[in-house]
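Open question from group meeting: does this chain pack into something compact, or does most of it stay loose? Before anyone orders reagents, we agreed to write out a predicted structure and look at it together. Recording both the input and the output here so the notebook holds the full record.
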Amino acid sequence: MRKTYEAFIAGLPEMVREERKPPLATAAFREQAELYLAGQDKALLELLFLPYDNQQVLKLLNRHDPDPDAPTVWPLPVLEEEVLEPERVLPAYLQDFIVRFKAGELHTFGQKPENVLSGLYYDSLIGSGNAFLAGYAAFSLNLKNLVAALNCKKYGKELEAEIIGENEFAQVLKTSRAKDFGLSAEYPWVEQVVQLMENENLTERERGLDNLVWEYVEEQNRFCYFSIERILGFAVELQIVERWSRMDSAAGREIFRELIEKFKNDLVVHIDK
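Structure tokens returned:
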């Protein structure tokens, strides 16, 4: 019998995508979750926060200074030790990546190291054994790849190195020449993304993409009330609200401005080629 979490979920605040400030900090949410979740359910929630660990590992492997304040699942000293001498403590996909990186084997994938790591991470979500998490991961991966493909097509960038993973959706992106890559019939949201990517306002575009993720989570959890799926969906939505809250701050606006400038500069480089 699956465990339910009536008390925990009933105590969570209502989440509204337009909120300028999250009703609950992610750190506080994770502290509360520690009181209720255990075993496999706890591991499923941690999977959603492992991208922070991925970023730290990439920095360490590239001999860059890690972020001491990053909200990783694993403490920074553990990540540092694993990068120096893997002891099979971290999740299997992250262990695998560290070993391959240090052995110089990643060049065989023809992708950037960060994309190889993302592919391994998404595979771990899809293979988690939880239908919500697997579906969310597949949707998120396909969305990310579609955005990358549309940018590559628009600005003449090499597509192969930008696509993450090897699923059927990714293969179609690499081979189709249609405006929507021939995917709209099977994936109705593809047409929405194509239209969003034609918007030159990067803020509106990013908002629109996050709205698609939000709508996906809401639809998948329509009839989930006190299950782990509801908690996982809350975590996804909380991270979206928190991300935009940071962007609304002075520091966040500066970060977003730098991202826009980097994006524009990258386009100039590729167009000049």
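Observations to bring back to the group:
Residues 262-273 have pLDDT under 50 and may be disordered.
The chain is about 65% helix and 0% strand.
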